[in-house]
Amino acid sequence: MITAIEKVAVLGAGVMGAGIAAHLANAGVRVVLLDVDKAAADAGIRRARDEGGFMDPAFAARIATGSTVRDLSLLADADWIVEALPERLALKQSLYRQLQGIRKPGSILSSNTSTIPLAALVGGMAGDFAADFLITHFFNPPRRMRLLELVAGPATRPEIVALITDFCDRRLGKDVVSCRDTPGFIANRIGNYWMIAAQNEAIRLGLDIEDADAIIGRPFGIPATGIFGLMDLVGIDLVPTVIRSLQDALPPEDAINAYEAEPPIVGRLIAEGRTGRKAGAGYFRRSAGRVQEVMDLKTGDYRAKRDGIPACVAETHGDPRKLMEHDSTGGEYALRVMQGTLAYAASLAPKIADGPDAVDDAMRGGYGWSIGPFEMIDRLGPDWLAGVIAASGETLPPYLALAAERGGFHSIRDRIRTALLPDGGTAPRRRTEGALSLGELTQSGKPFADNGCAALWDIGEGVACLEIRTKMNTLSPPLLEAIDKALDAVGQNFRALVIGSDAPRFSAGADLSALLRAVEAGGPDELLRTIHAGQRVFAAIKRAPFPVVGAATGIALGGGCELLLHCDAIQAHADLQMGLVETKVGLVPGWGGCKELLLRTTAAPSGGRGPAAIAASVFDVIANARVSSSAFDARKLGYLRPSDNITMNLDRLLADARQCALELADGYAAPQAETLALAGPSGLSGLEAQIDSGVLSGRMTAHDRQIGLALVGILTGGALADPIRPLSEDELLALEAEAFIELFYTPQTRDRIDHMLATGKPLRN
């Protein structure tokens, strides 16, 4: 009996197999990756490294490679074997038979298939094979896509379903959705219908690609790639193969059979090798001048890509229902695609899933939709959609008719969100056991305090959660004031504080627009007040009489990074991108970021380094605006301490942060003020020489030099600093404020700020 998963074997080192192996290595387990020959397996590891499959490139060392011909013995002690071979039943079963005499008793075997039914995979297999077998369908890329579809057969042992579910949830960070053993399972069954409908309807209606992507994208909570950007990403040649496979597996009356798998223009692209990003050209390409071009769906020729919003989207302000009603070709397109997709989902749900939430979660996790089909129907109005379908002469799915009668697929009863089931019953909202969501608290009650730009929630067990509610969670003077008030409220009513939210990002940093407006209104004095306000509030976080834990996800940049650096602990999501990026807008950290990174680097386990080496290390990170590629990388850069925890499953981040806060709360004492021995003149001259070398080589501009010298002055204490007289935290903060103000009023920095606000990209001047 397998009770824990410590070693996993992956068979097949293609794009999916190598990606799965890399992500298993991210989870800290030992991995064996086999292909027909070892060279192919090694190539898979290199590809996974190049494509960002590893959260730390060093994790590749956790994978042993070999050949399925000679090295099957390497998986004799594997707890879980993942088969990721090409979609050929005979090939898969041939390997399964070889494994039966090698794998240890009770080990788990799963297939990553997306097209072959489980019943066919286990058919004719001997012994206890079916009891140990299930389907674990990962989505590409395995590191990034949260969905894992799990299919168990009637003979599959319940305990291995529970074990794999828990491992994939906690260790791999997956949203594990149980699926019925039907063609395409959930996400690809609905997603492929949506893709082929969106592609073919755009071709039929003669739409421009930019308009089709804009119409079918953001208004419906679908990623900005829209449909044609997604086709280029997936592979234009792969899509018809997948569609045909589904069409062959489904009855003729299934709605997907109404669409041609390979329209003539698609056949032409494939024949000419224009198969998408992997080929350098598809529906989009880059010209020799790096200008993005887009293909004309009528002629197949390229032209410069247009910017702007289609009139139908602008006139309806992106409202999906109004867009579907809009009297235009774009409105007809939105109606045809989304009416068909939502009706398809409603007709299939009773056969493919346990309820509407499983479908919604699958489309969010597998296709990146911000809301699932049934949540979308509730927003549109199920009675409205039912009326539209009836008026079109199409068959109204009984499940949708039931929802129209009941008022929607979801409702809140006794402060619990429930889902309508196809049989007319209801069930609580599908959720990850033990997870914590502010969204659920919003539905069942009100925050403890609400300042507009931030809210304070009681998340149980004496812990509060401060939720930032500004655009991109940016930091502004009103938000700093709200944080200050929240700290007072927590001190009087709670044991600990978590700073975090359900938002996809922790904070994009300081609100530069608000800062400019404040300075324009109040001049230099207002700028100094803003700097001091941030320093005071962040110091209050650090010195609070209760523990403060930052629940960090997505991006934590600039001021957002500085906020986290002042927390007692950081509970980081594994894919955290964290960094002090102020130099990109011509500034240096002014809210204690330099000070805190110096303190962390000084206390790092590597130890033994003098003040000059520490200053050089921190300079490299801040001057180059280094942003972590993952939480593991953030540890290497010094943003995270070794004691800071990493959560793989985003749904568990707030719950894990609460647990961390509770563990700190027992016997908590606020950290004492520290002092730092800075390098002084010797460290200053060494870093100045490094900067001058960068200017001479062309790696740095004259303004980069000015920023670098300002930063060096902070990190070394300047020419008058004395290494034998440590500086206090307040003295370091004064150095940060002085350097920030000096740089802010240079024309070059103002140009950088204006350019960033206008384009979202840094200016090199």
SSE layout and pairings?
Layout: E1 7-11, H1 15-26, E2 30-35, H2 38-50, E3 63-67, E4 80-83, H3 89-99, E5 108-111, H4 118-122, E6 133-138, E7 147-152, H5 158-170, E8 175-178, H6 187-205, H7 209-216, H8 228-234, H9 238-249, H10 264-271, E9 284-286, E10 292-295, E11 302-304, H11 311-315, H12 320-325, H13 329-352, H14 356-367, H15 373-380, H16 382-392, H17 398-406, E12 410-413, E13 416-420, E14 426-428, H18 438-444, E15 449-450, E16 454-458, E17 463-468, H19 477-493, E18 496-499, H20 512-543, E19 548-552, E20 555-557, H21 559-565, E21 569-573, E22 577-579, H22 593-603, H23 611-623, H24 631-637, E23 645-647, H25 653-665, E24 675-676, H26 680-696, H27 702-716, E25 727-728, H28 729-744, H29 747-759
Parallel strand pairs: 1-2, 1-4, 2-3, 4-5, 5-6, 7-8, 17-18, 18-19, 19-21, 20-22, 21-23
Antiparallel strand pairs: 6-7, 9-10, 10-11, 12-13, 13-14, 15-16, 16-17, 24-25
Helix pairs in contact: 1-2, 6-9, 6-13, 6-14, 7-13, 13-15, 16-17, 19-20, 22-23, 23-26, 23-27, 26-27, 27-28
What this model shows, in words?
- The protein is an alpha/beta fold.
- 46% of the residues lie in helices and 13% in strands.
- It has an eight-stranded mixed beta sheet. Strands 15-16-17-18-19-21-23 form a seven-stranded mixed beta sheet, with helices on both faces. It has a three-stranded antiparallel beta sheet with strand order 9-10-11.
- The longest helix is centred in the C-terminal third of the chain and has 32 residues.
